Amino acid sequence: MHDLQLFTKDLSTGSRRKLLQTIIVTFILTFYGLSNVQAITPAEQEESSRRMQQEELRRRSQQESQERRSREQSKDTFLQPEVKSTQETTLPVEELSFLIHTLELGGERVEKFPWLQDMLLPYQGQKIGKDGINLIVKRLTNALIVRGYTTTRIGIPEQDLSSGTLKLMLVPGIIRNIHFTNPDTRANWYTAFPTRPGKILNLRDLEQGLEQIKRVPSQDADMQISPGENPGESDVNITMKSSNPFRMTLSLDDSGSKSTGKIQASTSLSFDNLFGLNDLFYISFNKDAQQEGDQYGTRGNSYQFSVPYGYWTFTLSGSSYNYHQTIRGANETFLSSGKSDNTEFRVQRLIHRDQQSKTSLEFGIIKKHSKSFIADTEIDSQRKNVTANEIGISHRQYFGKTVLDVKLDHRQGVPWFNAQAETGGADGLTTRYKLWTLDTTVSTPMKIGNVEGKYSFTFSGQYTKDLLYTADYFSIGNRYTVRGFDGEQTLLAEKGFYIRNEWSMAVAQGKEAYVGLDYGQVSGSGTQWLLGKKLAGAALGIRGTEGGIYYDIFTSWPLYKPEGYQTSPYSLGFQLSYQI
């Protein structure tokens, strides 16, 4: 026993962990009557674990890519052209003017506009005449329009300016009614609009409501504001255009791995406005399309339900994924399999919007379960039951036709919902991590001659000071991160980033060719086991729609990779989808 203690003491932490896993697996296999089967070696078990972890990271990269594309394609509504506000406070010199010591803003609901009273302060102590009063009113009205209060007015009541006091009157623009012009519509404005009849009319509220209606793919809406019966009142008239709320989408691509199924097929069912709340629901089923039986395979499903409430959006989503593959040992073959289940609940709140930008806060809870099996026997050391919360801020800014999207998130492992206890092992790995992620996209139109095109730039990164389990690593080297690589092997570690550049040009109606140039690198303690830290690659492809079928066909090749890094000299890839 003393010799064994000396032996294990000399082993590194990683070697002791691998040795312990091998002993456990050997014991389990023997216990279940498999004494004639040689237990897999540490290298073979490590390969099984690596493949599962790599598949998990690939699916996460795919999900993040889909979420980014969804954000980029979201419809924004701006109901007025850009109006410039001014900080100018000088007034014209007039022959007939009065020294004004106090400027008062009165009127119904004036307490809702404290910033208007602040705008009047610089005019105190100035001589003001008729033109000066009109200029002040114009500046206040312009400030109201900039902030979306387009039906609120500033009036000038009769008064004696010789008293040294200038009185102005605010006449708020009130919403009398919100209704659909086509009464048979199934849409519900109540969950979409953050305002109600009797509230002060603000275009920002109406823009938000239209966006919440239009976020449903089968719905489109137009809006008009008409005068109400009483002065200052307005009616909001919404005209709906609806199409089939049910969609089925069939997809086929080669985004999988050779070990679990290269060709992946999926069927998605989408139900728009299922409960009449401007809600979205979809469920998707996917599996490998090669049908290799016990040799290898994958199957999974996912769902998402999302419902708005004015400036709030609530989303519940989940996914389940299973894989299996045959591992060849020294004398026998073993069936290695794994299962993971993820559930997420997110709340998003838009906190600011103007004529050119939107800013939102988001809070989310993420629950993950994962298990690994060899010969239908679970490997307890690879079981994970973890919970994390995520707090983030996202911002979209328009610079003319250029669009900037930025999303910054802080994720933290927490003990909520029966998450497994922190082991506090000597290796320092933790499920109570703290990490930051940043995702930035810039898209701008470009033109070469008479050909329209677009350039897009994407940056995605992760940073942490903690030692993470592999499932939380940042990875690069597939079609969703750094293109040019077949995805069978990736670089992964606790920290990292990648940059994607893409130039696309229209080549025909509904078709575009594109060129991609990508770079990425990883860092952290996990890199000590890697061949290198950096990858660079390029891609060339064409995408579009033909006969109702969307396609994306591309080839990619590595520009830089570490010595010994195994990947194809070039990769061909495709994605096909058809919506019924």
From TrEMBL:
InterPro entries registered for this protein in UniProt: Hemolysn_activator_HlyB_C, Polypept-transport_assoc_ShlB, ShlB_POTRA, TPS, TPS_OM_transporter
Domain ShlB POTRA: 175-227
The Haemolysin activator HlyB C-terminal domain, residue ranges: 232-544
Compartment(s) of residence: Cell outer membrane
Biological process annotations from GO: monoatomic ion transport; protein secretion by the type V secretion system
Chain intervals with Basic and acidic residues compositional bias: 47-75
Transmembrane parts of this sequence: none
Highest taxon, organism lineage: Bacteria
Region annotation Disordered: where it falls in the sequence: 43-86, 217-237
Principal cellular location given in the protein's record: membrane
Family assignment from sequence similarity: Belongs to the TPS (TC 1.B.20) family.
Protein name (record): Hemolysin activator HlyB domain protein
